[in-house]
Amino acid sequence: MSEILLQIDGKKVTAKEGMTILEAARSVGVSIPTLCDHEKLAPYGACRVCTVEADARGTTNLVAACLQPVENDLVVRTRSEKVDKIRKVLLEQMLAHAPDSEELQELAQVYGADKDRFEAESSFCILCGLCVRYCAEVKKKHAVGFFDRGAKREIDFIPEVAIRECWDCKECFPLCPTSALQAAYVLTEALMSPPASSTKGCNSCG
Amino acid sequence: MPRINSSAELDALRQEILSQRDPDQPCLTLCSGSACHATGCGKVAAAIEEEMESQGVADDVHFRRTGCHGFCEQGPIVVIYPEGICYLKVKPEDIAEIISETIKEKKIIERLLYVDPNSGENTTLEEDIPFYKNQERLVLGFNLKIDPKSLEDYLAVGGYQALVKTLFEMTPEQVVGEVKDANLRGRGGAGFPSGVKWDFARKAPGDKKYVVVNCDEGDPGAYMDRSLMEGNPYGVLEGLMIGAYAIGSNEGYVYVRQEYPLAVDNLEIAIKKAEDYGLLGQDILGSGFDFTVKVHRGAGAFICGEETSLLKSLEGLPGEPNARPPFPATKGLWGKPTNINNVETWSNIPLIISKGADFFNSIGTEKSKGTKIFSLVGKVNNTGLVEVPMGATLRDIIYKIGGGVPGEKKFKAVQTGGPSGGCIPENLLDTKVDFDELTQAGAMMGSGGMIVMDEDTCLVDLARYFLAFLSDESCGKCNPCREGIRQMLKILTNITKGLGTESDLELLLELAETTKGASLCALGKTAPNPVLSTLRYFKDEYEAHIKEQRCPALSCKALIAFYIEPDKCKACGACFKQCPAEAIEGGKKRIHVIDQDKCTRCGSCVDACPKAFGAVKVMSGEPVPVAIAEEARNLG
Amino acid sequence: MDIGTVDQIIDKHHGEASSLIQVLLEIQRQNKWLPKTVLTRVSEKLDVPMSQIQHITTFYKTFSLVPKGRHEVHVCMGTACHVRGAERILDTVEEVTGVKSGETDPDLNFSVETVNCLGCCALGPVIVVDGEYHGNVEPAETVEVLKNCDCSCE
After folding, report:
1. I want to staple B191 with a disulfide (CB 3.0 to 4.6 A). Which of A174, B105, B435, B557 is the partner?
2. Do B478 and A48 touch (CB under 8 A)?
3. Interface contact C52, partner A, CB < 8 A
4. What local confidence, expressed as pLDDT, does residue A191 receive?
5. Which of C32, C59, C86 finishes a domain?
């Protein structure tokens, strides 16, 4: 693997070919905020709060640090007026879904994001996909998945899989930056357990 | 049919086909594209077959059902050769006369001719109709000449000559070089140089490579790819094979949206015929080149027009785009180097190879070469598919070919580039159609949708429309696209309802910046364009909605009202009968009155009210007058 | 749809996981909707997790997870149709059928869908009722078309 020389926030960085900007930055102690990144999971690029400015071959682009591979002579700025403004708006959009999320609130303080800027949304989920990807990539169970598309995209459990796999796992719960996952699970659980009326007379399952 | 094993055998077959065709024999062609199917060409075809038989001309007259002629609103279209007499809006009951008068007696049937909407004059020959006369149909022209179900027809017009030249006279490097030299740019949207793209895929390491036709024409308002695929699938396949040879691939996919059933059918027939002749499969024409192709139907997702999403869909996955790099040229379908071009791009390839890069370069502007097909639709007299050299002005297309805006209405804007594009106002109508000039004007070439709007179209509502479209069609994976569109759409919806505030415009710009800057794929990066371009040229319309609760185009339902002017109403009952909401109270000799609470603002009353009366007034930004007193409603 | 037919469709596509969308399209075409039992069978036979099937059947617009009405009405909402008044056509369709876009009435009379472009742009606004195209329609004509379909909607 050949070495790549680049610059991040003024620091000279030596990285390996195939590394992402995020990995290169972390290797020299530069922190870039992330919400959908996880060490055990493939890079995903959904939350975009890791957006940075990168100069390459004479042009400046906004790129997602978690996906963008390093290249020679790349000049990266992890903070700039433009980057901060984008992160602020992105956080405000997510706070409309999950105003109580601690992770979001911490970042909101750094970037001056106002949690009430946009009208509150009904779903708490910010669709970082950590639960779906963890269940698929690490646990290989596929008990939780994405549904629909566009503004209607959501996550939900697959009841017949969840009933088998989730009761003693729940490893995805702590990954969720909001309370959406647990809410979805509780709902699924309610659907999975038979309604009270039909359990009458059954002693074994209560 | 026999398998063709060499280029000599192909030539012999072509000569044999041509020798059996007499150019002076009367030939009756019927446009059978999707739009003509919608207007009833099936029944017309049946009538033609029946009448040819009963009038005894079945053996002397050739009947051919062709692909889309492009003049879709005038369909079904019948053209009679060798003269080229063009009959429009033909009905089954016209056929007997067409055969007895025009075919047998060479007499023209005036009522079926094209009538110029402005001058009222008739035109007899297809080539003289301004809609066709001002076009340069290098690619689309084949549609008029061949039956898409007949490979023999394609051979008769010179089909597969470019493939023969490629396979027997050119190295793959030379083919790539020719396409590079031709400066062909992708017709699907961004205008990336096709030759450069091919070169990446050719040079990418790997034994297995793929070529893909993108016929997921999702851009609402554009349908040239559908027409090319329906009308001349052989041309697309020939281009694809040339590309496959150039990059070193022997497997191709055609991705067609399932909303285009006729395109799928005609393509499948074409593939079968080409296989039967040995023009697909192993050792094509004895050249040693193998190539197979599979059809994949799209299941309804605009995002699949984006190449990485399309590839995901081909693999049986949801069409969520991947970040690039890696580009499909190095890591595409199943991780293998893949070259994707859209239908129109592939259709240009046989032309470039046959006629050469110099010929192609002789057409167009400095940086945009060749022709481009547009679908000229909306509020324009002659709607349909239009192929012009790059560099033609929007004004020429809309007025010379399109015949201008119908009725007494005023032109307002033309929208190009679909949901990623923008609206161009009247004062920029001399803009040339050229990838870079359109982008500079805040619009985009896109795939070639060209939607003309008159004073009745509200551009705030149009921006809302596009954002609603994108909100539904975004894959929803990344935050700036999904949430940015959601918030912009909310603001635009509020504005069209008269609930906008003055700070909304600034907020729109801020959201646009984030969505444009941080989104993962081109859908998100260009999603704010409909907002940005309308704000750039039509800010006054936004302001009228916000400050005066007025829709200048009289289109936003929440801001308009319909009112029957008592002094103009003749109590004819026309509006009363047409009102689907039963909101009009009328009666014999009683001035009609609209119940504002029941009115759904569909506008049927305006359509119904005879022009001579013009009694229904559409109002916005002003109070509706109090309904006329009951006792004053009786008309003499 | 019986499991045998599902199996036949899957076998036609050689049981490859990548043919999932083509298999589902074929089932949708024949059966008009995708019942849960069918999806479970497809999941087993193609060895594709149910979560992926759920995502695909809700991601792509062609698929329906509920039965369709006897009459399917598609209203084109492409740009060309939009500027020529598609919105008021959709309002009329919803009004007459009493069915909102994307829905089917409980009696399974009508299913109403919007389409983001049928490629018949020159004929806009366009509606397709039971596979038959109607171009350049106006609200009043739309009412006629819908009333003329053989149904008990009145």
Report:
1. B435
2. yes
3. yes
4. 77
5. C59
Give the minimum alpha-carbon distance from B227 to chain C in angstroms, rounded to a whole number: 9
Q: Nearest CB to A158: which of C54, C58, C59?
A: C54
Triad A153, A159, A162: Cα angle to 5°: 105
Cβ of A158 within 8 Å of Cβ of C51? The answer is: yes
**CATH number belonging to domain B145-359:** 3.40.50.11540
The token pair at C146 is 């819908």
A164, HSE (Cβ side, Cα atoms, 13 Å): 7
Q: Quick one: pLDDT at residue C119?
A: 84
How many angstroms separate the CA of residue A151 from the nearest CA in chain C? 12
Residue span of the structural domain in which A45 resides: 3-79
Six-digit token string for B488: 């912009």
Report mean pLDDT in 10-residue bins for chain B, 636 residues.
Answer: 92 96 93 91 96 94 95 94 96 96 95 91 95 96 96 97 98 98 93 97 97 94 95 98 98 95 96 97 97 96 95 96 94 97 98 98 96 96 96 97 94 94 96 95 91 96 96 97 98 98 96 97 95 96 97 96 95 91 90 94 91 95 91 85
What are the boundaries of each domain within chain B?
Answer: 25-129, 145-359, 371-454, 459-548, 560-632
Same domain assignment for residues C55 and C79: no
Tokens encoding B222: 């554009």
Give the pLDDT confidence of A140-169 residue by residue, as tens digits: 999 999 999 999 999 999 999 999 999 899
B371-454 CATH pick, 3.10.20.600, 2.60.40.10, 3.40.50.11260, 3.40.50.2300? 3.10.20.600
Of C78, C92, C140, the CB nearest to B220: C78
pLDDT, position C139: 87
Counting one residue from chain A and one from chain C, the pairs whose CB atoms sit within 8 A come to: 31
For residue C59, list chain A residues with Cβ-Cβ distance below 8 A: 148-149
| Residue C66 located in a structural domain | no
In a domain, A161, yes or no: yes
Domain B560-632 has CATH 3.30.70.20: yes
ipTM of the complex: 0.93
Q: Which residues of C touch B260 (CB under 8 A)?
A: 119
- Contacts of residue A122, Cβ cutoff 8 Å, sequence gap at least 6: none
Q: Which pLDDT belongs to residue C150?
A: 56
Contact B311, B338 (CB under 8 A): yes
A-to-B residue pairs, Cβ atoms closer than 8 angstroms: 96
Looking at the structure, give the CATH architecture of the domain made up of residues B25-129: 3-Layer(aba) Sandwich (3.40)
Q: Say how many domains are in chain A.
A: 2
Q: Where are the alpha helices (DSSP H) in B315-454?
A: 343-355, 357-361, 394-395, 435-440
Nearest CB neighbour to C55, from listed A147, A160, A161: A147
Per the CB < 8 Å rule, is A147 touching C50?
Answer: no
CA A75 to the chain's CA centroid: 26
Mutate to test the interface with C, among B73, B460, B607 (most CBs of C within 10 A): B73
Rounded to the nearest angstrom, the minimum Cα separation between C153 and chain B is 15
- At residue B462, the pLDDT reads 96
Does residue A202 register a pLDDT over 80? no
- CA-to-CA dists, residue A160 to A114, A156, A169, B138, B463, angstroms: 40, 12, 15, 57, 43
- In this prediction, residues A65-89 reach a mean pLDDT of 97
Does C87 share its domain with C18?
Answer: no
- The total number of structural domains that make up chain C: 2
Q: What does the pLDDT read at residue C1?
A: 87
| B377 closest CB neighbour out of C16, C80, C88 | C80
Select from A49, A89, A127 the Cβ nearest to the Cβ of B511.
A89
What DSSP letter does each residue of B472-511 carry, written as one string?
Answer: HHS---SHHHHHHHHHHHHHHHHHHTT---TTHHHHHHHH
Instruction: Spell A173-198 as b/e; 16+ CB within 10 A means b.
Output: eebbbbebbeebbeebeeebeeeeee
Average pLDDT, chain C: 92
CA distance C57 to chain A (A): 8
CATH topology of domain B459-548: de novo design (two linked rop proteins) (1.20.1440)
Q: What is the mean pLDDT of residues A131-136?
A: 97
